Amino acid sequence: MKLSTKTRYGTRALLDLAINQEKGPVQLKDIAQRQSISLTYLEHLVTPLINAGIVRSARGRKGGIWLAKSPQEIRLDEVILLLEGSNAPVECVDRPDICPRSGSCVTRDIWTEMKKALDDVLAATTLQDLMDRQNAGTQAVARS
């Protein structure tokens, strides 16, 4: 199972936004440059984040985007569901009605366990956790 660039880039953009939030609204072009993401692609990623209330935006000379919630309140499971959709490895995990074997399929049980494990990790990880990991990595490099 692979996450799309939509999810990977969207998560990186949110992390960049969280790290730079103290400076006020952040311009998309700055995030795009720091994260090596096409500005046009980033604009498409930000729209669902704004619509979901994770990010806010303002136009104009001093405009930009900023987090609508604190980094501690933004869980990766909600971001990934928003950008990627379900993380179920097979469709019958979310929709058992599509397969007549769902009720007795042991492989479906494994796929369901995989989804639950992934959901648990993502639900327990916030944007703040990513910031903390980023800072720990930066500090480790600075000490070397």
In short:
It is built from seven helices and two strands, in the order H-H-H-E-E-H-H-H-H. By secondary structure, the protein is mainly alpha-helical.
Task: Explain what the structure shows.
The chain is mostly helical and 144 residues long. It has a domain of 69 residues: Arc Repressor Mutant, subunit A. Helices cover 58% and strands 6% of the residues. It contains 7 helices and 2 strands, in the order H-H-H-E-E-H-H-H-H. The longest helix is centred in the C-terminal third of the chain and has 18 residues. The two termini are 35 Å apart.
Architecture blueprint of SSEs:
Layout: H1 5-19, H2 28-35, H3 39-51, E1 55-58, E2 64-67, H4 76-84, H5 91-94, H6 106-123, H7 127-143
Antiparallel strand pairs: 1-2
Helix pairs in contact: 1-2, 1-4, 1-7, 4-6
